[in-house]
Amino acid sequence: MKLKAPPVFAKRLLKWLIADAIYDDLEGDLQELYQDRVEEVGAFRARVHYYKDVLMSVRNSTLRRKLNFYNPLVMYKNYLKIAMRNLLKYKGYSFINLFGLALGMAACLLILLFVNNELNFDGFHEKKANIYRLDEVQTFGAVSAQKVALSMYPMGPNLLADYPQIINFTRFWGYGSKTLLEFENEQHYVNSVTRVDTSFLQMFDFEIIMGDKETALKGNNNMMISQSVSKRIFGAENPMGKVLRTSDEAMQFTITGVFADVPDESHLQFEALLSIGAWDEERRQNGWGSNYLNTYLQLADNVDIPALEATFDDFLVKFMGEETLDYYELFLQPLNDVHLGSMDITHDYNNHKKFSRGSVNIFMILALFVLLIASINFMNLSTARAATRGKEVGVRKSIGAFRNQITGQFLTESVLLTLIALILGLVLCRMSISPLNNIIDRELSMSLLMEPLNALLIVGVAVSIGLLSGVYPALFMSGFNPVLALKGTGSSGGKSVFRNMLVVFQYAVAIAIIIGTVLATQQLKYMQNLDLGFEKDLVVTLDMYGDTNEKYDLLRSELLNQPNIQGVTATTQRLGNNLHQTSMQYRTDTALVSGSSSFVGIETNYTDFFEMDILEGRGLSEEYEDDRRGRSFVINETLAKEIAPDGGEVVGTAFHFGGADTLGTIVGVVRNFNYNKLSLRVEPLFMTFPPWGWSELDVKLKPGNLQQSIAEIEAVWTELFPQRPFEYKFLDEHIGQMYKSEQQLTKVISILSGLAIIIASLGLFGLASFTVRQRLKEMGIRKVLGATVPQIVMILSKKFTILVFIAFLVAAPVTYWLMNSWMAGYEYQVGIGIGIFLLVGVTSWLIALVTVSAQSLGVARSNPVKTLRID
Amino acid sequence: MRGTYLGELEELVLLSVASLTEEAYAVLVRTEIEEKANRTLNISAIHSCLYRLEDKGFLESYYGGATQKRGGKSKRLFKVTAYGYKTLKESQEVKQSFWQSIPQLTTKNEIKGTPGFC
Questions:
Q1: Is-contact A730 A540, C-beta < 8 A?
Q2: Alpha-carbon distance A856 to A792, whole Å?
Q3: What is the pLDDT of residue A420?
């Protein structure tokens, strides 16, 4: 006979609601009845009956599953109380445990704030995804191909006209880094006055306070100023419609708008905007070949960038001819890449606080590693500490705790501790955020952390750390055999292999970070102290302007009359950055060769002033008529090598460059000097007396009384140019600024590596003290049997020495490889010596040894009678 | 003492278990009562009654007799305990003593349908 199964749903309902103990026989009975009924009254009615039976049974309270009212709150209260008692019982370890984790968390949070700030640079522009900066790759003769953040005046409008996928463009053309503006006979300096197209405010979302962003820059003589400039010049008055005059060019501008001060996280910085229209002359509109401004393009959605870039060659050929491709190539840089992705781009004048993406990544990796070390610490200490709680686990188990209850207890405790650590970490953050802001030159704020989503994320991560680092001790403890645990033998055992591995890992990371930091710092120091090939110390630089150039000779002789001034020279470009390139020609025995080279215009005493080495010939001199007419040239070694690759004579070679009509001669070769970053090679360079004015005056001070010297310069300056506020800058500071990104990097990683070793040592300290405690009796017996104090310290320290040694063996090769590839990016490398590795290895070993000895010494000195009596 | 009294249905179920001697389980008990007392009860009533009697100590149970028909589930078989017999007996004696003191006035009809287990 084929048996029919009773309705599944009814059966499930029964199983769900009926007490487990009687379910089987009850269900059997129902099924038996069901089968009988199938035969008697048919399947359908049997099913109905079955349902009825089930419902009746379910309704019957004596048969129903009893609900268990177990109140876990009581247990939680107990867990909390025990957790607190344990924290207070071992105050030292609790502090180490919490403080270590808090340090790690604080470091991580701060770095993440910084990373977030960097990644969101220029993030406030709504069209940011569609805005690109137009950059060039320039290849001029022997000068290495270089990416430059420059473009030509006519490029923007013609690109807009030729390409349907280009929707809009704006140029960004500095008018003056410092401009004197006159209002009612009062002079005011305004920084970064910039000429832009009308579309500028439509493409970029800078906040407008007064005026209309569509029309404010339409008129040729319109000007918009920032709120603080408005306050500075007009006070509380309404600036709209007021007229400002530039003092040297005598141009007049009407204020047609006020914008909020440009936020710090914008790579474009300006205090005033001018309409570019006033300069839109025909010679500029056809000014192909001169690069002096930035162009930004707004593209349509989903434009294929590589494909677009590929067509730019045709564009260049169309306007500049076939041979232009030998010199120029255009490429687009996404707006969100400008801040972090421009380290290899030179002549990048409008890139506020530019930073390297690599450094951001290094920060992030280091911060995560510090957090990892801290978490491992936390885990190690928790495990070690949990081991002392074997008896508690034993008691709990013998009065009926399930394994998962104990696991839960330890997990909760661990999560609780991480949350306390998080609070502590936030306090540390709060305390250290402003010093950090000073170091990295940013305006980070904690408010970002308090946003609901971020706060949730942070708490979530903290809880995960708690769970992850609590899971090992929890599982380890809950697995105790209660009998052994109560006898006190369950807590030791050979399970410390895992802990030892963690210690090795921690120390390996810490050692790697420290070696990396030391090497990076050395490299930076090396570069800053390297002989640049010119004397940069004690030199003060002053900007020169049209009006100050008129009295140049007077200024110079007045300055030289001052007692605390050694020398004065002038130039067209400051040293300590990339120098402009220009085309040049020279005559060899066989032909007239055209090429390009970097170029700087110099006063005749320039090479003497900077104490440059003349290798051949002579430097410029006042005595030669040609020198003062721009017909004598001094070139550097690289250019000399290009002109005469076989090392032949170059002095006397006929030479001329773009700006000059007449042929001059090379009169000397100067030893290569590093006018640019030391990570770059020295490019070909020539120097000559320029037929136009100076843009910078260099004044060499007498050592000793700098204050007095500066005061003398100021006195001369203000007497000659009362309209120009006195401003100056030390050359070595300017040169140091080239390494700002590196300096910030090394400062921050120094802090992080300090933290890493502190946290790792804290962990080792805690772990050592536990190991020592566990071996108290053994040491007592050894002492009774005649072991000396040094012997006991030795025994206890041996294990940790081995661990640190293994960590070193793991860390050293990895670090060597990483640092080697980092240094490859520098032209001048400090070289990675074995010494540093040994030094760091030995130092970290000593730190570990001191940490452990501090613990073991106490034991070694203690009275064995006391330790042996402990049970 | 609470729990030592027998309810009407309880007494009926207890008696049927006693009369079935072997293999007394819910389904059989139900059939037995249906036949002897002409009462059709829902199986759940029998179940709760049996478990209650077991709780009170009148019945004891053991497993046995799994069949295909029951989906392979074994039966819970019940047996009357000595205490159970004693209680049944006492209950019958109490009633008997009442019967003896009742004058023989009742008609035959009135006795019918209540075979002494009111």
A1: yes
A2: 8
A3: 93
Which one has a higher pLDDT value, A428 or A683?
A: A428
What would the pLDDT profile of A384-443 be if each residue is shown by its tens digit?
777 678 888 888 888 888 888 888 888 888 898 999 999 999 999 999 998 888 888 888
CA angle A266, A267, A270 (to 5 degrees): 80
Alpha helices (runs of H) in B21-107, residue ranges in sequence order: 26-36, 43-56, 82-101
A860 to each of A781, A854, B100, how far by Cα in Å?
11, 10, 98
Facing B44 at nearest CB: one of A25, A35, A56: A56
Task: Please give the distance of CA A303 from its chain centroid, rounded to a whole number.
Answer: 30
User: In Å, what is the CA distance from B118 to each residue of A450, B6, B94, B104?
Assistant: 77, 11, 11, 18
Task: Identify the burial level of A231 via C-beta atoms within 10 angstroms of its C-beta, where 0-12 means exposed, 13-18 middle and 19 or more buried.
Answer: middle
- Residues of B in CB contact (< 8 Å) with A are 25-27, 42-45, 47-48, 51-52, 63, 66-71, 73-76
Other CB atoms closer than 10 Å to residue A220's CB: what's the count?
13
Secondary-structure percent of chain A, ordered helix, strand, coil, rounded to 5 = 55, 15, 30
Handedness of CA A403, A409, A415, A418 (dihedral sign): negative
Integer Cα distance of A268 and A172 in angstroms: 9
What are the backbone dihedrals phi and psi of residue B60, each rounded to the nearest 5 degrees, phi first?
-125, 155
C-alpha triplet A591, A592, A595: angle, nearest 5°: 125
**CB contacts, 8 Å: B51 with chain A:** 22, 62-63
Compute the distance between CA of residue A511 and CA of residue A805 in angstroms, rounded to an integer: 11
Q: Read out DSSP for A260-276?
A: PPPPTT-S---SEEEEG
**Distance in angstroms (rounded) separating the CA atoms of residues A755 and A429:** 14
pTM comes to 0.70
pLDDT at position B1, please?
Answer: 40
Tell me if chain B has a CB within 8 Å of the CB of A439: no
Task: Flag if B43 and A30 touch (Cβ within 8 Å).
Answer: yes
> Which chain B residue is nearest to residue A2, measuring alpha carbons?
B69
Residues 15-74 on A with a CB inside 8 Å of B are 22, 24-33, 35, 52-53, 56-57, 59-60, 62-63
CA distance B79 to chain A (A): 16
**Which one of B31, B41, B70, B78 makes the best mutation probe of the A interface by having the most chain A beta carbons within 10 Å?**
B70
B59 to chain A, closest Cα gap in Å? 15
CB contact under 8 A, A56 and B42: yes
Please determine, for the modelled complex, whether the ipTM score is greater than 0.85: no
| Burial class, A141, CB count within 10 angstroms (exposed 0-12 / middle 13-18 / buried 19+) | middle
Query: Starting at the edge strand that comes first in sequence, how are the strands of the sheet with A729-730 ordered?
Result: A565-571, A696-701, A539-543, A729-730
Q: Nearest by CB to A31, which of B48, B63, B73?
A: B73
Q: Do A24 and B74 touch (CB under 8 A)?
A: yes
Nearest-CA residue of chain A relative to B26? A29
Chain B residues within 8 A of A65 when measuring between CB atoms: none
If you measure CA to CA, which chain B residue comes closest to A26?
B47
Q: Is the dihedral of CA A92, A98, A101, A104 positive or negative?
A: negative
Alpha-carbon gap, residue A182 to A837, rounded angstroms: 61
Q: What does pLDDT average to over chain A?
A: 85
DSSP state string for A503-537: HHHHHHHHHHHHHHHHHHHHHHHHHHHS--SS--T
Beta strand residue intervals within A704-818, DSSP E: 729-730
Flag whether pLDDT at A147 surpasses 90: no
Distance from C-alpha of A263 to C-alpha of A124, rounded to nearest angstrom: 10
In chain B, residues with a C-beta closer than 8 Å to the C-beta of A10 are: none
Q: Which of A5, A28, A53 sits opposite B75 (nearest CB)?
A: A28
Do the Cβ atoms of A240 and A248 come closer than 8 Å?
A: no
